[in-house]
């Protein structure tokens, strides 16, 4: 694997509130803490870490990743349960895509059980809190190395 591998880590709506509300579900780490964990887990690889509350912005960033990234990690938050646009954008990618959730949506309300992202993803990590981001970075690096 080249040292210059770029991994996009995209975060969807309300994840900017992490650490401030519902710590019993989402933990006490802020998104800035989680970004730091990703940077440490990535070693020499480059992390592009972003959050938006807007569906179209996520689509724009996924399209950007087609040109600039070797792997993409996405916590789509609630848009995972609603967005055909995210599904379609992710389906255009040929790089590994990891869907990530802090909680385990399958163990929560029924409306969280379906994901439009899962069927466009290489794999899914859910239920491990902030540590899931480190696991996702490791999984992304493994996939990038396999393809090198
Ligand atoms: O477990 C996850 O990571 C989720 O993607 C989080 C989403 C939820 O809609 C998904 O079903 C599972 C919600 C993100 C909201 O984040 C908050 C953070 C702090 C306080 C309130 C909401």
UniProtKB/TrEMBL annotation:
Which pathway does the database say it acts in?
Answer: Metabolic intermediate biosynthesis; chorismate biosynthesis; chorismate from D-erythrose 4-phosphate and phosphoenolpyruvate: step 3/7
Q: Where does the entry annotate site (Transition state stabilizer)?
A: 21
What EC numbers are recorded for this enzyme?
4.2.1.10
UniProt keywords (A-Z) are: Amino-acid biosynthesis, Aromatic amino acid biosynthesis, Lyase
Instruction: Give the source's domain of life in one word.
Output: Bacteria
Q: Which residues cross the membrane?
A: none
Recorded hits in InterPro entries, A to Z, give: DHquinase_II, DHquinase_II_CS, DHquinase_II_sf
- Key word Amino-acid biosynthesis present in the record? yes
Query: Which residues of this protein are catalytic?
Result: 26 (proton acceptor), 101 (proton donor)
- Enzyme class at the top of the EC tree: lyase
- Describe the reaction catalysed, as an equation: 3-dehydroquinate = 3-dehydroshikimate + H2O
**Does this UniProt record's set of keywords contain Lyase?**
yes
Gene3D superfamilies in UniProt: Dehydroquinase, class II
Sites binding substrate sit at: 75, 81, 88, 102-103, 112
- List the Pfam families: DHquinase_II
Regarding protein family, the annotation reads:
Belongs to the type-II 3-dehydroquinase family.
Spell out the NCBIfam families in the cross-references. Answer: aroQ, PRK05395.1-2, PRK05395.1-3, PRK05395.1-4
Subunit annotation: Homododecamer.
Q: What does this protein do?
A: Catalyzes a trans-dehydration via an enolate intermediate.
Protein name as it appears in the record: 3-dehydroquinate dehydratase
Which organism does this sequence originate in?
Brevundimonas intermedia
